[in-house]
UniProtKB/TrEMBL annotation, chains A, B:
Occurrences of domain Bacterial bifunctional deaminase-reductase C-terminal (ranges): 12-194
Organism: Tropicimonas isoalkanivorans
Gene Ontology MF: a single term: 5-amino-6-(5-phosphoribosylamino)uracil reductase activity
PANTHER family for this protein: BIFUNCTIONAL DEAMINASE-REDUCTASE DOMAIN PROTEIN, DIHYDROFOLATE REDUCTASE FAMILY PROTEIN (AFU_ORTHOLOGUE AFUA_8G06820)
InterPro entries cross-referenced by the UniProt entry: DHFR-like_dom_sf, RibDG_C, Riboflavin_Biosynth_HTPR
Highest taxon above the source species: Bacteria
Family matches, as Pfam families: RibD_C
Gene3D superfamilies, per database record: Dihydrofolate Reductase, subunit A
Gene Ontology biological process terms from the UniProt entry: riboflavin biosynthetic process
Name under which the protein is recorded: RibD C-terminal domain-containing protein
Length: 218, 218
């Protein structure tokens, strides 16, 4: 490990039944049948509204926690399923969901079996496409992060892979009081995680529950 | 519906990954590989300790909520998997896990494909064995409850069946910060439940999360 650089999952949203995304993902529906359900709480915060150039928003615990998103982060790793809808790699013009100036402002490593040349965006975000095992990808991201933390950006499949590989130091999961019934589960394959992580849960008045998992002694 | 009699799930415990019991259920392990993990929080309460004839215990929100267990309850319905370990119906002497004086003190309807004659225990508990659809079982339990509420006692499979049949008015689910990885899931098949229930979550200092689901307008 490079000094005190940590790997962090930031405000990853799941339904009460544990799904991090729905079914039927497409260009029109980045979360499938989940629609906006997993992130309404976030768009109600001041930080969430600022992301869309809007005024107002809440200043409570939800807002305080989402602001950790970029604090101390030097790079992100994300899965191909977060970067674009199924089939994005067949579209040479696809540059992600986030427009010309994505909200990352750091190098972002996109794990994919269909790598392409790096994509430099406005505002400091460069997408690097990587066909590599989680530990290799993390080594690359740590290098790029210059001693800062690495965000494990999701979706649920790649978070599970990184947890299974023992590569995640901290997870902030937001349980939203909706039941998706179908989709991609976050918690699968994490049996006895409580033996390796301190787990703390706190409810927000907005109705969501923040779950913090911190590697024990980490 | 018979007057104001309601159907209630009381402090049903699930792991963070949504399992209401583990795998490998047996006479020695009523929750399989889950061991005591799902209920340690309850045995720390004053009410939980009293159940075992012990002094002390916490008096906070966990204790207050578990005390709802018998308040206003006139009957319980439980699944065969709660009444005994796999194969209990082949043992004519099996009378449940709870000794001579079970903690129910009302009629209890055990749903099973292997019915047997009623079993009258000490302290007011009588087990009735019923091979019937959820709605029929509820009608029988309501009759026996004399206008009081009916507890939907679990396990997870029968709770799911009763929710799917639209027969549950209130659920108090306790999310415990452990990951079981395997077992019987509670939340499956409840897609869009938030459209029909008000959902409230509150964290306890003990580390568990209480989730209250109340039928909207109910
Ligand atoms: N709930 C939240 O807060 C949250 C956060 C982020 C994203 N999401 C949502 O999650 C969904 C995507 O999640 P997902 O679980 O389906 O997919 P994902 O984790 O984003 O990506 C999985 C895919 O990434 C590629 N990949 C992963 N590991 C790799 C490796 N080691 N080497 C090479 N390629 C690798 C593979 O795609 P290929 O084989 O196709 O290249 C794999 O199928 C989207 O709906 C997104 O909007 C939700
Ligand atoms: N987490 C908690 O708070 C909590 C609470 C209660 C129990 N539990 C645990 O949950 C586990 C049992 O749960 P489970 O989901 O496996 O089983 P369950 O829900 O207790 O029982 C399901 C079984 O009941 C019988 N049954 C259900 N509906 C019926 C119907 N309409 N007609 C006839 N028979 C019917 C069937 O058994 P047969 O065909 O064999 O008769 C069925 O396999 C145990 O480990 C128990 O300790 C946990």
């Amino acid at each position: 490990m490079a000094g005190t650089s940590r790997t962090r999952v930031q405000h990853f949203a799941v339904s009460l039944d544990g799904f991090g995304t729905g079914v039927g993902l497409s260009r029109e529906a980045p979360f499938g049948h989940a629609g906006h359900k997993l992130h309404e709480w976030m768009f109600a915060t001041r930080w969430g509204r600022q992301m869309f150039g809007q005024e107002g928003g809440t200043r409570g615990i939800d807002d305080a926690l989402v602001r950790q998103f970029s604090h101390g982060i030097g790079a992100e790793i994300m899965g191909a399923g977060k970067f674009g809808p199924p089939g994005w790699h067949e579209d040479p013009d696809w540059t992600g969901w986030w427009g010309a100036n994505p909200p990352f402002h750091t190098p972002v490593f996109v794990l994919t079996h269909h790598p392409r040349p790096p994509l430099e965006m406005e505002g400091g975000t460069t997408f690097h496409f990587l066909d590599a095992a989680p530990a290799e990808a993390l080594a690359a991201a740590r290098d790029a992060a210059g001693g800062m933390d690495v965000r494990i950006g999701g979706g649920p499949s790649m978070v599970r892979d990184f947890v299974a590989a023992g590569l995640v130091d901290h997870m902030h999961i937001v349980v939203v009081p909706v039941l998706l019934g179908r989709g991609v589960r976050l918690w699968d394959g994490m049996e006895s995680l409580e033996d390796r992580y301190d787990i703390e849960m706190v409810a927000s008045l907005s109705g969501v529950m923040h779950v913090m998992l911190a590697r024990t002694g980490g």
